[in-house]
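pinning this so it doesn't scroll away 📌
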Amino acid sequence: MDSEQINPMKGIALKVLSVLVFVCMATFIKAAGTDIATGQITFYRSAFAMVPILAYLAFKGHLRTAFQTNDIVGHMTRGFIGILAMSFGFYGLVHLPLPEAIAIGYAMPLLAVVFAAIFLKETVRLYRWSAVLVGLVGVMIITWPRLTLLGEGGAASSAAALGALSVLLSAALGAIAMVLVRKLVQKERTHTIVLYFSLSASCFSLLTLPFGWQPLPWSSLLLLMAAGFCGGVAQILLTQSYRYADMSTIAPFEYTSILLGMGIGYVLFDEVPTGVMLIGTTIVVGAGIFIIFREHRLGLERKGARKHVTPQG
């Protein structure tokens, strides 16, 4: 990172703004209704995200280079896994209270640690393994009341239980997508990765056209278009935030989404968090912040070790 660009407060502000816009995206999707096919939701989310992304790239003069890639297969693979994660996540979003769907989704960075150790051979020591385990226990505390109602309590309870399972599956697929992105960033530009994800996700979503797509009322159509636009804007804000501060500085502010989700869920959807959900969320957030803190400490130690290495002449 260029020292002239370091501005932690600006980075944090952009991160929090991106979280707010992502939560607005989720709110629009939830408000659009529960009877819309998830493939149809993901299409609008992906296709209309390209509007602000393309405009931004054109403004920055990166539009021509953004389409240049040496790993089209890698982008398509990431897009396919990403669209699956999005689809399961959106199903859960429309069948669960907003803050609950957000909280279960916090399993994604925890699972990313596991998959990075397995697939990328990253070193994960006892402290992080312990935090991941504690965090996943928190996720199970949140989801268990839903899962025990699977097949019981009528259609609404079963839909909520399937919604909880869907968000869990979305988190696992999202963690795999994160691993794929880590591999892509080694040889591809950030704006290329962002552009090809929206492009590939839009194309893959169209394959679901025969499965439940239907004409939408204008209200739902506008909400889904707004959701897609918000998704693109939020992605730009998130990318920009990392230009001004380290990831360890910015990452904890991801958890402001649960506060926003609780407020919006209560005001717009009359959703009141349960005590079990609050306990589980506290555990998950605590584990996530511990992992971020641990990564920050290890990063400082590695920098210090490099500084004290005696130059060889």
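📌 and the second one:
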Amino acid sequence: MAKKIILALVIVILIIFCGIKLFGNDSVDVYNDGENITVETNTFSDIDKHKLNKEICNYTLDVMNDTTTDIIAYRHGIEDICSHYGLENVNVNIDSSIGPDQIPIMVTVDGTSMVPTLQDGQDVLLNKTHDIDVGDIVVAESDEYGGIIKRVDQIDGDRIHLISDNKGISYEYINGVLYEISGITTWVDISDINGVVIAY
């Protein structure tokens, strides 16, 4: 009798294990605090989890530096990476220091154009989004100036006018010619916005 009970228990455990293996959902949990990224893959599949997690971390870094990738494209990118490892229908959970389904990025201010609000060398946290309002401080890629951090002054459709907080004007001699140095004002496309500063 005892042998039959033990055998029945073993069969039940095997059925449960096989059911989890066949029907359980694989998942990838990604956490980003703006500087550090952690990835945990949960699967019964025989894959190199370390290699997969590293590839997702590297992809996340690329996403953080790309102004065009939003949270939906980011999630699809992770799913595509998982697919290359044979994981289909993966449940991707993206969390961050600013909440779920957000992409935080730490940026260091370079220059004094946003004084007194932001100081040269100061670290700021931004949310990678194109959801912006007049008055927001944003990080953008300008064709004319490269990477800049400025305040949104006007929004005209997909065109965004950015200005510096520092209204001071200085003068500098360069090769014997006197130049007026003032804060940048420029127009950029909304696709050039990398994110909105949310903490400084």
